[in-house]
Design goal:
Blueprint (H helix, E strand, L loop, with lengths): L1 H38 L8 H12 L10 E3 L8 H9 L5 H28 L5 H7 L4 H4 L3 H19 L5 H18 L1 H21 L4 H24 L16 H7 L6 H20 L3 E3 L1 H16 L3 E2 L2 E2 L5 H8 L4 E3 L4 H39 L9 E5 L23 H4 L16 E3 L14 E2 H8 L14 H4 L2 E5 L11 E6 L3 E6 L4
Parallel strand pairs: 6-8, 6-9
Antiparallel strand pairs: 1-7, 2-5, 3-4, 9-11, 10-11
Helix pairs in contact: 1-15, 2-3, 3-4, 4-5, 4-7, 5-15, 7-8, 7-9, 8-9, 8-10, 9-10, 9-13, 12-15
Length: 520
């Protein structure tokens, strides 16, 4: 009897020690994961400078020094998280810091939401926090899909809140669901989709597991959908929209994304991290220490089918299927059980997770810190631009799109859009898509605006200047040498391709600024 009691006490002591070790490791990793945002004034994310440019336009709207080329046109768009919050935060801090605080808040919502969801489902926290840290700088987030990141964080809290009241009265479930549906509709449409899909999969499992009558199961699903349909109706009545037309499937990329997802800057580190994580999960499942709960099995199958079925481009928004992967990685761990048989297993698991997290974090820090000087240089170059000018962005490369390009170069792609603030300039690449952003180009320059698009290859611009035009040349550059005042050429420095037309004003390691001598 004494021996048995002693064994029980030993097991409890080990469990308590292992839990303390896991808490310490998680706290250290969480603190390290926030360092990139805290140490860089402008995070080196592909779309981030463009979003920051839009925040400047929104924050200065109605002021005497507002940019003369853009106007603010609000409508019920399901993609407005930062557009609604950052200008309000900018009343207290600078626009640059307010935008960075929004990103930091998004990360805290992701990590905190994963922890809360697991706590609600299992009554304890084991896996979700570490999973959140491993994907905190995954591909969609490092590409700068900040509204989606914020919305996904809110969706985790919404799923947790719904599961807390899942067995309570219908009115309470309806109110909780309606509150989060409204918030997510305003934040980001695809984050709302993740929330709805998760609740739908869960309700289907619940109906199957408890032999719920079809009528009752259908009623629960309808009650989830009612607030969404009401908001869609309001959007139609107020001339709102969800993006624009444009749907495409890229099935050949779906296997690739599974190995590209972990890191937005280094394919080798991403693939190694994904393979290590897959091997770790397979080994743990084979040994029986990691198990999916029944509801988790339904969710895993549901997300897998959703990933295969959803288009790569939907409502003219790219990489939609890619966003399903981090959503599943943040939600499914809450429905897994982990039983490590010894302290050695605990140390091995924590070592593997720490290695994956720190390897990806080191790449992020290296890239972000390297861009501090580049962003400072391009902001300084805006002083050489006459205020109110029209600025074109070109690239020394061939314009190849992800995922095959070197993404360590992509954070510079939209940096010149910051000229809309520092030089009150017009830049055609500023995000102004109807149905996504509340900022639009004014009528005088609308023909030059492109809602989405990267730098125009310099070889194309040179061909246009030489009179070698074709029908597939975009309208905004067909007469660029007459329409624009300045040209930024991004990428490694090369010889001036048009010395009779372009005069070099400034250069850095990642860009050259030219003055365009307009020709009739």
């Amino acid at each position: 009897m004494v021996s048995s009691d002693w064994q029980i006490m030993t097991i409890w002591a080990r469990l308590g020690s292992d839990r303390s070790l896991a808490i310490v490791v998680f706290a250290v990793l969480a603190a390290a994961a926030l360092l990139p945002v805290l140490l860089t004034p402008i995070p080196a994310m592909v779309d981030y400078p463009n979003h920051l440019a839009r925040m400047y336009i929104l924050s200065q709207n109605g002021m005497p020094d507002a940019n003369p080329y853009y106007e603010v046109a609000w409508a019920l768009y399901p993609n407005l998280a930062m557009d609604l919050l950052v200008p309000q935060m900018a009343h207290l801090v600078s626009v640059e810091n307010a935008t960075r605080l929004f990103l930091l808040l998004s990360q805290l919502l992701i990590v905190g939401g994963a922890l809360v969801l697991e706590r609600v489902v299992k009554g304890r926290v084991q896996l979700a926090g570490f999973a959140a840290l491993m994907v905190l700088y995954c591909l969609p987030f490092t590409w700068g899909f900040v509204n989606f990141e914020f919305g996904l964080g809110v969706s985790l809290w919404g799923i947790a809140a719904y599961l807390m009241v899942a067995e309570r009265t219908l009115p309470l479930r309806f109110v909780v669901n309606a509150v989060f549906v409204t918030a997510l509709f305003a934040a980001h449409f695809f984050a709302l989709g993740v929330y709805g899909a998760t609740l739908g999969f869960y309700e289907l499992w619940r109906a199957y597991d408890r032999k719920v009558p079809y009528r009752d199961a259908a009623l629960r699903l309808v009650m989830i959908a009612i607030p969404v349909m009401a908001l869609f109706g309001a959007m139609q009545l107020t001339a709102g929209s969800i993006g624009s037309e444009g749907t495409a499937w890229s099935f050949e990329f779906k296997p690739l994304w599974l190995f590209r997802i972990m890191n937005g800057y280094n394919l080798t580190v991403s693939a190694a991290s994904a393979l290590a994580l897959m091997a770790l999960l397979y080994f743990a499942a084979k040994r029986g220490v990691l198990k999916l709960e029944p509801a988790g099995t339904w969710l895993a199958i549901g997300f897998a089918l959703l990933y295969l079925a959803i288009p790569s481009q939907l409502f003219d928004t790219s990489f939609v299927d890619l966003r399903v992967i981090p959503a599943a990685a943040l939600i499914i761990p809450a429905f897994c059980s982990l039983s490590l048989p010894s302290r050695r297993w605990t140390i091995a698991a924590l070592t593997a997770v720490t290695g994956i997290t720190l390897a990806n974090l080191a790449i992020v820090l290296m890239v972000w810190l390297s861009y501090r000087a580049d962003y400072a240089a391009i902001i300084k170059s805006f002083q050489k631009i006459d205020r109110g000018s029209l600025v074109l962005i070109g690239g020394s490369g061939d314009g190849e799109d992800p995922p095959f390009s070197d993404l360590t170069q992509y954070p510079m792609a939209y940096a010149p859009t910051l000229a809309v603030h520092y030089a009150n300039a017009f830049v055609p690449n500023v995000f102004t898509a109807v149905g996504k952003q509340p900022v639009q180009a004014r009528a005088a320059v609308r023909r030059l605006a492109i809602p989405y698009g990267g730098p125009m290859p310099i070889r194309v611009l040179a061909a246009i200047a030489a009179g070698q035009t074709s029908s597939d040349i975009p309208p905004f550059v067909r007469s660029w040498y007459r329409d624009y005042d300045y040209l930024y050429v991004l990428g490694p420095h090369a010889i001036n391709p048009l010395p009779n037309l372009l005069e070099e004003l400034d250069r850095s390691a990642r860009f050259v600024l030219y003055k365009i001598h307009r020709t009739p």
